[in-house]
Amino acid sequence: MRFVLKVVDNLGATKVMCIQALKWKGARLGDTIVASVKEAHPNGKVKEGKVVYGVVVLAAMRN
């Protein structure tokens, strides 16, 4: 996996790196992923380096 994603949440994380998709062949819309927080707001609830779960809600394809 190892791709960096932008995050929109209320916990304070801004960028996460995907560690693993919880399905066999990658993540699509609505799938759950396991990710590591790479950037976070200083006053947020999560800190850099914490492992979190997330749901994919927006995806874009390259042409």
UniProtKB/TrEMBL annotation:
InterPro entries for this protein: Ribosomal_uL14, Ribosomal_uL14_sf
Molecular functions (GO terms): large ribosomal subunit rRNA binding; structural constituent of ribosome
One of the Pfam families matching this protein, by short name: Ribosomal_L14
GO cellular component, one term: mitochondrial large ribosomal subunit
UniProt cross-references to Gene3D superfamilies, sorted A to Z: Ribosomal protein L14
Keyword line: Ribonucleoprotein, Ribosomal protein, RNA-binding, rRNA-binding
GO BP terms: translation
PANTHER family to which the protein is assigned, alphabetical: 50S/60S RIBOSOMAL PROTEIN L14/L23, LARGE RIBOSOMAL SUBUNIT PROTEIN UL14M
Family assignment from sequence similarity: Belongs to the universal ribosomal protein uL14 family.
Name of the protein: 50s ribosomal protein hlp
Annotated source species: Quercus suber
Gene behind the chain: HLP_1
